[in-house]
């Protein structure tokens, strides 16, 4: 066959076409010569250039590449000032682009193949740069010419660089011309003449030179075994036979990709790509510690896609999220990455998950087009005997991805973290477990080290999250509430026991008392009066969140359970907003089903009649409602995981949202001007609550646009209770 026998489109767009499999591989298979002018020279560009050339190289074809060096500002300045020999500077810049970071199987195989082709004289690389009036510039033209044994030519040009990002992620386009098409013959000839002029260094104002040392470095750096000329067939799961027919090797009957892949319309940020690369370097194990709203889910899905491709799609992926609504949220994104997940949890809509899971495991063993398997489930279902029994039957490598992974430090989940999972990924904005060093250590021991730390301050600085203003609103316990708080504190003091490490902790009864005490603070009646005062100026606005409820209880159920005091508070808040201020509000709690929640989110986002959401607990982890502009937080938690998650809900980017506002109802035992009249014993009893509230004010205030407001309040509280920084560093006794 020849190039003329191939179906060749006039244009290829990366959002529509698989350029490697639909253009490069079939056309290069029929070619005897490949001339390519690309963008910047780098090892990753060489990896991409190699896709499709193995067959033609094995049959004696010839490959000529022209690339441009990536010169830093210092390089260009040094050339201008003549500090060093120009070619030496360019050579140094080229060598810097030969990375040591390629560790995945396919990249190393391809670089080894290229090193052999250079050594055998099949592949030749020359370096181009512009040189006009002694000004050095980059050569940016991107085009290629293919020629077959019959002298037919195909030329192409366009915006696509030879890099993984351009080939598979960015939105790129190439235009294609064939010389046997009469209207296109002149275009092909122009490209041929241009490449000839470049290659022979006769193009005006363009220098194209050989760099023998670069070839030597490439050979020394990457050649380490016999070349793998079957690499294209292995990686892309299709065989292109000598007579030109294409067999679907491991892809499904429709020709679609079997495993996970990053979609062409998804552009990962550099920090996400770096996180994935670091995870690969840690043998596909690690932790993505990323602030809420910075793209943990897409980074995780990008990591799944990378491993799937590296393992030739022979992989079982198990994704675990805390709640049903988060599983559904994951599914929305999973399907974009070319996966068809089995949804597994106790719900009538998914009651047949056991049958589907078992069938998928069987199919994986006997069908080549079913070797990729993805299941997404809740924490509770993951820990169930039915689910664990099926994991034991999986024969392919397993990747375990755990969202909000701090929950897996609990003993009921941690006991299932074992060697069945060859590959591991933890996602969390707050992996450290509150007052549970043992559980935190277990998570690090199983998942490995952090592959990325992307904190809130960096996310705001880099415009990935919205800046915010913080308004701490002081409220105080009533006389009855304070009496109850002090009585519970006294009873808790009698419930201290030593753990196995000799440290004091609360007994089971003490933990129950601590929960009751935290609910006294969360349900302080003054909060309702203060809320009405603070929210009244916003009564005609939209995109408002009011966060009610007490400290969240972690248990082994799929839904939150709210006690009577929580419900009373949310009902009172709903009444204030809806009846007294005539606002359009909706509750967002565990009582609303999935469909109702989806509808609430839709109406809230579209800027219509729904002005405010009144929520309890279930917004703590993972729920994505970027439209929130103003939050009123009544829930007084001392658990950093919870208040960091709650702040993250408010800071997600959205249109027409230059900044967010957070009103935090800070609860103190009594007005500050009355503290001076207390006995030392009375003041000391206050300090546990005071220090816990101060910790949250400091955390919220330190990154706020109006940080002085929080700082002034902190100074006032510290002065009233005679607290210094040493006092604040000591943990309070508020076990939750």
From TrEMBL:
The UniProt record lists the keyword Lipoprotein: no
Originating organism: Roseburia amylophila
Top-level taxon of the source organism: Bacteria
Domain Helicase ATP-binding: 277-449
Record's keyword annotation contains Transferase: no
Name listed for the protein in its UniProt record: DEAD/DEAH box helicase family protein
UniProt cross-references to InterPro entries, sorted A to Z: ATP-dep_DNA_Helicase, Helicase/UvrB_N, Helicase_ATP-bd, Helicase_C-like, P-loop_NTPase
Entry keywords, A to Z: ATP-binding, Helicase, Hydrolase, Nucleotide-binding
CDD domains named in the record: DEXHc_RE, PLDc_N_DEXD_a
Domain Helicase C-terminal: 530-694
UniProt GO molecular function: helicase activity
Gene3D superfamilies for this protein: Endonuclease Chain A, P-loop containing nucleotide triphosphate hydrolases
